[in-house]
Design goal:
The chain is of the alpha/beta class. The protein is built from ten helices and 15 strands. β8, α9 and β9 form a beta-alpha-beta unit. The protein is globular, with a radius of gyration of 21 Å. The protein starts with 16 loop residues before the first helix and ends with a helix. InterPro entries: ANL_N_sf, LuxE. Pfam families: LuxE.
């Protein structure tokens, strides 16, 4: 068994017994009344934990609709107070002593302030276990053949604490490493995208025939495929056991973004990787639960989390099919009061039956993120959604 699938203990087994039971569920996509009640119990424990340790969250909870009575079921989640993700860009708020911080990471935005997130041992290890369980569900852990990695991310350097880089380095533990190349090379004075290095690596990987795993930002793989075409390089045939897992979005390159179906088709055409082994993963520094695409490329909500969609006009919760802001809820985090976070992402949530992949949990589509392009804000995108619904 992979080391990251092993047991992890909450910091206080008495105060967080339901959190422990919920996070110990090994199957990523479990549904049912018992699970819903357990989730509500775990959220009550999480709220009490943070209220006792964070004066900031204690005030929020006291002023919320959840102050007078605990949650009884997931139908009550809309009563929870939430912290906007942008709050963490300007404030460092923790629910643990400084000495218990095991990891400090920042979000991977290219401009402006970045979110500062802090992890204690439980939050870090359980977050890693969540990712490992999702990968294991799809059979992406345990392969014995060494893998050539192309990380579409930042080459490590001392002091680099980007959450996306930490995650991609961690994902390299799921299959033995044959070699690693980085799209963003450390030059000694920052990082620079190295398209020729990426092209050379892919050609070498095709010649070697070993499985390839491409992880990280989709933008730099897209730019690499562009460069291959510009150079007249014919399609490569990477091992069919290769895997592409994206994360982090297009960030400062939203103006050059390629639609997922087009990008996935280009990856298949130019690299030979099967469509079902090309997936996008959604996550954030402020909320480290992994939302992975199913084989039909829908982002499903795992059992350790729930998602609400809130109106861009009123912030009232919306039903399936209505676009609004994403609110992610999960009791897994003990280090920061980020158990209920409102994102700047504009999403639509759907029932599992609308996917058809067989997973029993809801899924969502991301319509846009804050700073969709250099000249287009999330507020503009929200205004367009409002206009569309009028």
């Amino acid at each position: 068994m992979n080391q990251y699938l092993g047991p992890v203990s909450v910091p206080d087994p008495d105060a967080l017994a339901a959190v422990q039971r919920l996070c110990d569920i090994a199957e990523p996509y479990v549904v049912g009344p018992d699970n819903d009640r357990l989730f509500a119990q775990a959220m009550n424990e999480s709220n009490a934990w943070h209220a006792a340790r964070s004066p900031f969250f204690a005030r929020m909870l006291a002023d919320s609709a959840a102050a007078d009575r605990p949650l009884e079921d997931v139908a009550d989640l809309h009563r929870l107070p939430f912290v906007h993700a942008n709050f963490f860009k300007a404030h460092e708020v923790v629910s643990i002593p400084t000495g218990d911080v095991k990891l400090h990471v920042t979000s991977s935005g290219t401009t402006g302030q970045k979110s500062q997130m802090f992890f204690d041992n439980w939050t870090l290890r359980n977050g890693q276990r969540i990712v490992a369980r999702v990968f294991d569900h799809y059979g992406w852990i345990g392969e014995s053949e060494p893998v050539n990695y192309l990380l579409s991310n930042y080459q490590p350097r001392p002091g680099l604490n980007l959450g996306s880089s930490f995650t991609d380095e961690y994902l390299c533990h799921f299959a033995p490493v044959r070699s690693v190349e980085y799209a963003l090379k450390h030059t000694g004075n920052g990082h620079e995208f190295d398209p020729f290095g990426c092209v050379r690596a892919l050609i070498r990987y095709a010649e070697e025939g070993a499985p390839v795993r491409i992880l990280g930002f989709p933008s730099f793989l897209s730019f690499t495929l562009d460069r291959m075409r510009e150079l007249g390089i014919p399609p490569l045939e990477l091992s069919p056991r290769s895997l592409v897992v994206f994360g982090g979005g297009w960030k400062g390159h939203a103006d050059k973004q390629v639609a997922k179906p087009e990008l996935y088709q280009r990856i298949h055409d130019q690299l030979g990787i099967p469509d079902e082994r090309i997936r996008d993963g959604f996550g954030a520094a402020e909320h480290s639960v992994l939302y992975m695409e199913c084989p039909r490329h829908r982002l499903h909500v795992p059992t350790w989390s729930r998602m609400l969609v809130r109106s861009v006009r009123t912030l009232e919760p919306l039903p399936y099919g209505e676009p609004g802001y994403a609110q992610f809820v999960s009791p897994y985090i003990t280090s920061v009061p980020a158990q209920s976070v409102l994102m700047g992402d504009l999403v639509t949530q759907h029932g599992p039956e609308e996917c058809g992949c067989g997973l029993p949990t809801p899924w969502f589509t991301v319509h846009g993120r804050a700073g969709l392009s250099r000249n287009r804000s999330c507020a503009i995108a929200a205004a367009e959604l409002i206009k569309g619904k009028s």
